[in-house]
Amino acid sequence: MRISPLDIRQQQFTVRMLRGFDKHEVDAFLDDVADDYETVLKENALLREQLATLEERSRGLAERERALQDTLVTTQKLGDEMKAAARREAELHMREAELRGEKIVEGARSEEAKIRSEIQSLRRLRRQLVEDLRSTLESYYRMMAADFGEDAGEPKG
Q1: Dihedral angle at the C-alpha atoms of 69, 70, 75, 77, nearest 10 degrees?
Q2: Beta-carbon neighbour count of residue 31 at 10 Å?
Q3: pLDDT tens across 94-140, in order?
Q4: Which stretch of DSSP H or E encloses residue 98?
């Protein structure tokens, strides 16, 4: 059972004739004690209220901290996933570029082979034309020699 300031103020003591206390002193002392006790109770109530408020704030801060930590973890995971996706995409682009490069090189080699083949064909054609021209010239020379004599090819001096 709690004692209230009012209980202290209303407390009555039995007074003995031989050795009693001064009633006014006791009453004044009890009033002082009651005032102090009332102040302590008010302070206690105020402190409980402040404690409840601070505990509520603390719970709110703890929830925010958890939310921030969850957000941080989620952000970290998302960042890691984005890095991995970027790496995969970069590797894919690299492979595509390598394939395109290989196709270009293959096309260039094929074109080179075709050009070399054409060059050889043109060289053969040139040799053939030179041979045909030589043959035609020799044939005309022989015909002229037959028509004009053997000295026809020799210059006159």
Answers
A1: 110
A2: 13
A3: 999 999 999 999 999 999 999 999 999 999 999 999 999 999 999 99
A4: helix 23-148
pTM of the model: 0.44
| 8 Å CB contact between 153 and 141 | yes
DSSP 153: G
Here the tokens at position 116 are: 């070399």
Helices (H), ranges, 149-157:
none
139, 143, 137: which is closest to 152 by C-alpha? 143
- Answer whether 152's CB lies under 8 Å from 145's CB: yes
C-alpha dist (Å) from residue 91 to 4, 27, 98, 125: 80, 93, 10, 50
Cβ 27 vs Cβ 15: under 8 Å: no
